[in-house]
Amino acid sequence: MTYSIPNDDDSNTRPLIIPSASARRAKRDPQSTSVPKLTLGSLGKSSAKFASTVKGASRTILEPIDGGDTATEIESNDESNFADDDSSVYSYNIDAPGSFINYGSIPSLPPPPVSTLGLPDNTQLEYESKKSKKRSKKDRSGRKSLFVKRDRDSTTSQKELKVLGKYSTPLVVTFLLQQSLTTASVFSVGHLGKTELAAVSLATMTANITGYAIIQGVATCLDTLCPQAYGRGDHKAVGLNFLRCTILLMCIYAFISLFWINSQMILDFLIPGEPELNRLAATYLRVLILGTPGYCIFENLKHFLQAQGIFQASTYVLIICAPLNILLNYLLVWNSTVGIGYLGAPTAVVCTDWLMAIMLGLYAAFINGYQCWCGFDRTIFQNWGRMIELSIPGVIMIEAEWLAFEILTLAAAKFGTTSLATQSVVTTICSLTYQIPFAVSIAASTRVASYIGSNKPKSAIITSAVSLKISLFSGLLIASILYLSRNFIGAIFSNDKEVIEYVAEILPYGALYQINDFLGCVSGGILRGQGRQSIGGWLNIFFYYVVALPFAILFGFKFGWGLAGLWIALVGALFFVSTLQTYFVIKSDWDTIIDKAREDGKREAELSQSHQP
């Protein structure tokens, strides 16, 4: 609504108009018996100063009071009105109730008609004296002073650095422990025989590409939807998006299961002449089907809690479950009483997946995170468009990188055993170090999305800048460590002198890869927080499959550069991905991004209201 204020040069004070909490309640419920009040504070300023100050500055951002509604943007409808004469009219557009409105040095006015403010006719007006400006931030009643004016984007680089470090540290531990679940299976089965070891490796690779990458990619939609909803205070929408994504993953799980059930036929086609290897790998996948729903629930619960700033819960769960997984592998694979040999490894994974889901669910239900639980209703099955729109590029981003690595590993096998062993060592190192930027990217996406949801673009920009600086610094640090330790780090993984020397030759390319991987991962996380996953998705597809793979074949086989040629192509492609993603982050139109998030919030609110009894 628009409230026009006539100029009156007979006085030199201005009003500060603050709809109180009771006024906001009265607007929602005009039949309320309580009498709402509208506070007007009188602060002495000259009207001439108002004209010179406001002219040319048409927007003011103010912080809400009482921890209530989102801060309002107050815009002048016509800058030409800002003249210091008796006929001037100052017009402002009030977007929402519940925010205090600073009209600048406007002369004192008679009480405005309450109808012009959209409040009930029985609204009373109160006046605060000049002294109120000197109150502390807490008045005698313990609430915020009405006259405390701040920029609503009050975060700092130092604060964001601390918060991102606090959030990402437990995530690094979480991801490393989660990765150990697969490693435990490889170690436990590796002593049964080389065929069994090869089968577990093949099954794990197949499960990652055709199952886990898809699940993780779909779950990344919650990095956008849940923190934005939480930032705008819509806790119900956080729970709704969690349930919607869980149902979506259960539908996708059905198709994954069909593929894994028929995986032996597919593997026989892709790897002819290895019937026993393919049979064992397919058997492993069929057992994993039983635990995949637990994995889906666990992944979604992680994002659900992270949106609320609860990052340590999954770490607590994995600190318990990772050692239990090792124990289960020993009991089910090697124990003479309860052991079942090869099948014990996937059975241990199934038990661990469900145990993680149950424990994290109990944490959310009884310790922290239950605040955003919304229950079940019909709205769960509506408004899926935005979720699917975000899920598809999320899958593409993860799938493109994982699949490209597997293809390059298969290509490395063409160069001989030493090259394949070297590729395995360098890939393992990169996989371990990747957990650092991945954790930072999750923390960054959560913070950025939350600030977008709460309409704080400056804070989102600060968080983005700090996150990118962290990625560059940590990437350079890890790259330096790998480069300086290249001559002896291979000995940790192999006793073969030839492999150790070849690792020292290839690892410098792996060090360069770290810089781009750190920057690309974190910039991709910021894009997820903005809801612009599609940018990263298409960049990954183009540069991995149109650039990296063709040039890898050209450099590696045509030019005879071997394994080094594969890594040069990979590093070059990732350089363009990380650089362009960072460019899109820096050039972000934050107003458009926030408007899009606001539209999503309005749509969700309208849907919820339409189903209220």
TrEMBL record:
It holds the Pfam family MatE. It is a multi-pass membrane protein. It comes from the Eukaryota. One of its GO terms (cellular component) is membrane. GO terms for biological process: xenobiotic detoxification by transmembrane export across the plasma membrane. Its main location: membrane. The chain crosses the membrane at residues 242-261, 281-298, 310-334, 354-376, 388-413, 425-445, 466-486, 539-557, 563-586. The keyword Transferase does not apply. Keywords: Membrane, Transmembrane, Transmembrane helix. InterPro entries: MATE_euk, MATE_fam. It is found in: Membrane. One of its GO terms (molecular function) is antiporter activity. Residues 131-147 have a biased composition (Basic residues). Residues 1-40, 126-153 are annotated as: Disordered. Belongs to the multi antimicrobial extrusion (MATE) (TC 2.A.66.1) family. This is MATE efflux family protein. It comes from Nadsonia fulvescens var. elongata DSM 6958.
